[in-house]
Write a structure and sequence with these properties.
The complex is a heterotrimer. By secondary structure, chain A is an all-alpha fold. Chain A is 74% helix and 0% strand. Chain A contains 13 helices and no strands. The longest helix of chain A is centred in the N-terminal third of the chain and has 34 residues. By secondary structure, chain B is α/β, with parallel strands linked by helices. Chain C is mainly α. The relative contact order of chain C is 0.11. Classes of the chains: A mainly alpha, B alpha/beta, C mainly alpha. At the A-C interface, helix 1, helix 3, helix 4, helix 5 and helix 6 of A face helix 1, helix 2, helix 3, helix 5 and helix 6 of C.
């Protein structure tokens, strides 16, 4: 394959600086020796990492967030992928209406969803249970998975599916062996969005968590009401490290970049 | 296929119902007390200064739930019969709302012996549904090398800002901040209680305001990075900032009086009765003093005697005025709307 | 051959419809319970009037007040501007992600999603350091002898920060459709002598339109639904509807009014999404 045009390489480099800059500021600020978030930081020290890693106020919510994010992502995939395939393939009456309805969670401000969900789940006896928290997050994450899979699948050359059908594969086998591998780029993109949206979601979490299920964004928000020290930068840096590690593991074992070329 | 959908619907409903019942039984266990607190230094103080007293007396464990005032209010509103939080620490206005809506239980000296040592202005305006845990006072933090002689009164300060005396290097709370309406009231008091005048003055001042802040941390960020030379801010947080090696900054309370930011403790209705014991621990003189030393806010208990080291750092109660909430509370919504429309 | 399969498929229409319904049933059921439930709760709340009556007074407060109409317009314009900027800035980057190889590709993808890894409040503080009056960018300008720029506490700052965090959605959506694109079509066009610009305009872009639509939907809805960035980097005049909703729920504690605004936003955005599903040309359908 041809190398990328030089202009595109330059552009990508410039955009990378733009994308990384504010995040790097936070990471650098986390290594300060001082008592306040300053940039450039006053001296180098790991004391704020030490502080945060000992503090159950951050560490427990961090794991709660990871767990919740993974569960919300998996649930979104289970709900959204079959629906996306059905929407593109099936000759369903009212398709547009269904699609608009399925994407409706995107149109609802999350604070309004959160308040509604709080009172609704309280009425059905589910309040501040993990079920309602997970449901709240899946509502938010499921449209991302649905839309990215729809986008890839609708743009896909579906003659290969037809060929498989002609060659005698039934619907399920075609879906599993032909369709699913082909839409993997959409699933990967959707899963990344779903996880990161859940990982940083605060409105639903504020109202539906209890002391045991508190998530990291809730801890950070509440911490910032009365404190302004580099602990927040340090926990954010740890958060970044975890996400990067997860993506690298994903890449190592499943090869994000290779997923994209599954069909060729 | 319809059958299948039906079966799935039934299973889902059954699951929901099942989980619901399971949860209802769970939360009936009286083996813990859930207490609301802000994160960080606040939660630390609760854990260090109040919890041991309570756990020693009752043998019941305390669970701290972090968050913010509006969220705690929503949570107890949604579940009045079986509240997920037993002791809340709401902001003044939220506390009034909760009291009016019948979400809280009234305190009496019989249930709460230490209430006897709390001055009336820290519980009466709330009809005894809530009692003040600590008192923050709004003042001015300033850069000593730029502003040599800060004005002694609020009126002079606002007039100076509006006249551009400090340049566009000032920040103060937005009317939409949690204590924003109280701030508007404070300014109106400097002009004979005239709210229109307060808006007029604030509008004039807005030319020189870098940002009307909405969250305390953005305010501290503005001051810490020296984007502003004067910041209208809370005393405890200002002094803790100055104490940590920022002696270029000064703080004072302009006169004649200033408003308070109060944390109001309440026992939520239908919460276990041991909640009173927790609140009593939080109001006990020795624990109040330790709390004041930790977070550098004054405390209401009259039996507390501050040691010399902290005395100058805490706002004297006679400099503080609690706004007449019963008179102005219903105007808050209108003021916020007016702020949005006029301060553009 | 494909036509033959299709014809055979129509014979199995009943079966196809059955499996389609089976695919849709779980998500529909889930949303009917956990999305329609909360919307219903809000709808009922929004009909409450002061004094205990029921009616449309809360909606009247919005639609008979030029201030709220201005804010709605402002919110929509902001959404469209951010979406347009994300398409313009994000498409080439998505193209680069799709075409890059090996480690460069993995690195680029990692860089693209970094804005999403940090909490919104913390990220905004990062921007304050860069965009502030004495921030890094202005320090650089001053060093070069150029005048300072007002980049914060106005629409500029809010837009920069919003485009920054929403770019990943555009880039990855575009990249994932470009990945699926059969490059042999481009190669065939090149062999036939078409210049690269024409190939891009007539072949690549139409085939990746689904990616732009996906990215556009996600960016637009997120841009007009979020408020923390606007709260921290904007000022009183940079008001958007979700920020008003937040204020009503927290400082004013006026849930009925907040609910009415929320329902209004829901309807406006749903109409926009519904309209685009009619308007946007389905590239694949054109190809068939």
């Amino acid at each position: 394959m041809k190398a990328m045009p030089r202009l595109l390489v330059l552009y990508s480099a410039a955009m990378s600086v733009f994308l990384l800059a504010p995040v790097l500021v936070v990471v650098v600020a986390a290594f300060t020796a001082g008592d306040f978030i300053m940039f450039p930081p006053g001296g180098f020290s790991l004391r704020w990492f030490d502080h945060v890693l000992r503090d159950s106020e951050f560490i427990r919510p961090l794991w709660n967030s990871v767990r919740l994010g993974v569960m919300a992502t998996v649930a979104s995939g289970l709900l959204a992928i079959p629906a996306a395939l059905a929407l593109v393939r099936g000759a369903i009456p009212g398709r547009r209406w269904i699609e608009t309805f399925l994407l409706a969670p995107l149109s609802l401000p999350t604070i309004i969803l959160a308040v509604g969900l709080l009172f609704f789940t309280a009425r059905v006896g589910l309040s501040s249970s993990f079920t309602s928290l997970l449901a709240g997050h899946v509502i938010i994450t499921v449209p991302y998975m649905l839309r990215t899979v729809l986008g890839v699948y609708a743009g896909m050359n579906r003659e290969i599916e037809d060929a498989a059908r002609v060659l005698g594969a039934d619907g399920w086998r075609t879906a599993w062996y032909v369709t699913l591998p082909m839409i993997r780029p959409g699933i990967v993109a959707g899963a990344i969005f779903a996880f990161l949206m859940s990982f940083d979601e605060v409105a639903v979490a504020l109202l539906l968590t209890n002391a045991d299920t508190t998530t990291l964004p809730v801890s950070i928000l509440s911490y910032l009401v009365y404190n302004y020290d580099p602990a927040v930068a340090a926990i954010s840096t740890i958060q970044i490290a975890i996400v990067v590690a997860a993506l690298l593991i994903l890449e190592r074992f499943f090869g994000i970049r290779n997923v994209m070329f599954a069909s060729r | 296929m319809k059958k299948r959908t039906l079966v799935m619907a039934t299973i889902l409903t059954a699951t929901i119902a099942g989980v619901g019942v399971g949860f209802a039984q769970n939360s009936a266990k009286p083996d813990k007390l859930v207490v609301a607190a802000y994160g960080g230094i606040w939660a630390e103080s609760v854990r260090k200064n109040f919890v041991p007293c309570f756990e020693q007396k009752t043998g019941i464990k305390v669970e701290i739930i972090t968050g913010e005032s509006a969220d705690w209010l929503a949570k107890i509103r949604a579940n009045p019969a079986n509240p997920p939080i037993h002791v809340v620490a709401l902001a003044e206005a939220d506390s009034l709302r909760a009291g009016r809506e019948g979400l809280l239980e009234q305190a009496t000296v019989a249930k709460l012996p230490n209430l006897a040592d709390i001055p009336d202005q820290f519980h009466k305006p709330w009809n005894d549904y809530s009692v003040t845990q600590n008192i923050g006072a709004l003042g001015v933090m300033y850069n000593k090398s730029v502003i040599k002689d800060p004005p002694k009164s609020w009126r002079e300060f606002i007039d100076n800002v509006a006249a551009g005396k400090y340049g566009k290097r000032v920040s103060m709370p937005a009317g939409t901040y949690t204590w924003g309406p109280e701030f508007i009231w404070l300014i109106s008091q400097q002009y004979g209680g005239d709210v229109d005048m307060a808006f007029k003055k604030l509008k004039e001042a807005s030319k020189y305001v870098v940002k009307f802040w909405n969250t305390p941390v953005e305010a501290l960020n503005l001051f810490g990075t020296k984007e502003v030379d004067a910041l209208v801010y809370w005393d405890g947080r200002s002094i803790s900032f100055i104490d940590k090696g920022n002696d270029w900054a000064g703080f004072y309370l302009p006169g004649p009086k200033t408003i308070a930011g109060l944390a109001m403790l309440s026992k939520v209705k239908n919460a276990p009765d041991v909640a009173w014991q927790y609140i009593n621990c939080a109001l006990a003189p020795e624990n109040q003093l330790k709390h004041a030393e930790t977070i550098l806010y004054a405390v209401p208990n009259t039996k507390v005697v501050y040691p010399a080291a902290v005395k100058d750092k805490l706002a004297p109660v006679d400099k503080i005025e609690v706004p007449p909430y019963d008179k102005i509370f219903d105007k808050f919504g209108g003021w916020i709307e007016r702020w949005n429309k006029e301060m553009r | 051959m494909a036509d033959a399969a299709r014809a055979q498929g129509t014979g199995e229409n009943g079966r196809a419809n059955f499996s389609a319904l089976l695919g849709l049933a779980p998500i529909l059921l889930f949303l009917v319970v956990f999305l329609v439930g909360p919307i219903w709760v809000n709808l009922l709340e929004s009909l409450k009037e002061p004094g205990g009556a029921q009616g449309l007074a809360q909606y009247g407060r919005i639609f008979f007040d030029s201030y709220y109409l201005t804010v709605i317009a402002q919110t929509l314009i902001f959404g469209f501007v951010v979406t347009a900027l994300c398409i313009l800035l994000g498409y080439p980057l998505g193209f680069a992600v799709a075409r890059a190889q090996g480690t460069a590709k993995a690195l680029l993808m990692l860089v693209v999603v970094t804005p999403l890894m940090v909490n919104v409040v913390v990220r905004s503080f990062g921007w304050m350091v860069i965009l502030g009056g004495s921030g890094a960018l202005n320090a650089g300008l001053t060093a070069l002898g150029l005048p300072k720029l007002e980049l914060m506490y106005n629409w500029t700052g809010v837009t920069i920060a919003m485009v920054h965090v929403l770019l990943p959605f555009m880039v990855l959506s575009v990249a994932s459709t470009l990945e699926m694109l059969d490059r042999r079509i481009e190669e065939a066009a090149a062999v036939l002598g078409a210049p690269p610009a024409r190939i891009f305009w007539h072949v690549t872009l139409p085939l990746s339109i689904e990616g732009i639509v996906t990215g556009g939907i996600l960016v637009f809805t997120l841009a007009i639904g979020s408020f923390v960035t606007v709260l921290l980097l904007g000022k009183t005049s940079t008001m958007v509807l979700p920020l008003l909703i937040y204020q009503q729920l927290t400082t004013s504690s006026d849930w009925p009014f907040a609910a009415a605004m929320g329902i209004t936003l829901l309807v406006i955005v749903s109409l926009t999404l519904w309209a685009q599903s009619w308007l946007h040309p389905r590239a694949m359908r054109a190809r068939r």
